[in-house]
Amino acid sequence: MVKLLFLLREVKPLTIEKDNTVEIVEETNELTEEQEQVVSEEEALNSNEDAELASAKERIAELENKLEDSENRILRLQADFDNFRRRVRLDQEAAQKYRAQNLVTDILPALDNFERALQVNTDDEKVKSILQGVEMVHRQLVEALKTEGVEAIEAVGKQFDPNVHQAVMTVEDEEHESNTVVEVFQKGYILKDRVIRPAMVKVSQ
């Protein structure tokens, strides 16, 4: 369009002398063939520029979508990694907290045998002496387990709790309220806040 205006500015009125009279003949407003070619080229150039601009905008939109997808993928990966690290940390804490669980599980049967031996009644002085030694070992073993966080589960006289008690028998007992533990057949133990073995109990109906 700039070239067109420039050409139009260059068009000057023609002066023709006839019989000493100057007639001014204005040039027609119709474009010459050269000017029409210039206009066509200018229009083609503008059309190409519009097409290139539209293509550039489309490419920019495509790149923005790809960038957004990449950012979302990175955020998801970051969240997954954070969850993984948290699970690993919790597993490590649990492993440290309950590190003695396998050992405690293996020791409990021996502890049961000590307690059964201590229930023996005898008048034999030699047997009593042996039982005193057994009681001392039993006490030391219980103290060692307490140091690791092992405690016996309270049962007799308590309301039955399926989380820590295992009912193996029910009985009608007027002296106890319904659903109360009246007898323990085998002690239960917890390690910190985890049940290692539930108590086997008799429950009143």
From TrEMBL:
InterPro entries with a match to the protein in the record: GrpE, GrpE_CC, GrpE_head
Record's family?
Belongs to the GrpE family.
Q: Kindly indicate whether the keyword S-adenosyl-L-methionine belongs to this entry.
A: no
| UniProt KW keywords | Chaperone, Coiled coil, Cytoplasm, Stress response
Pfam families, per database record: GrpE
Query: Is Cell inner membrane set as a keyword in this record?
Result: no
**SUPFAM superfamilies xref list:** Coiled-coil domain of nucleotide exchange factor GrpE, Head domain of nucleotide exchange factor GrpE
GO CC, sorted alphabetically, is:
cytoplasm
Q: What is this protein called?
A: Protein GrpE
Per the UniProt record, the source organism is Sutcliffiella cohnii
**Residue ranges of coiled coil:** 24-87
- Localization per Swiss-Prot or TrEMBL: Cytoplasm
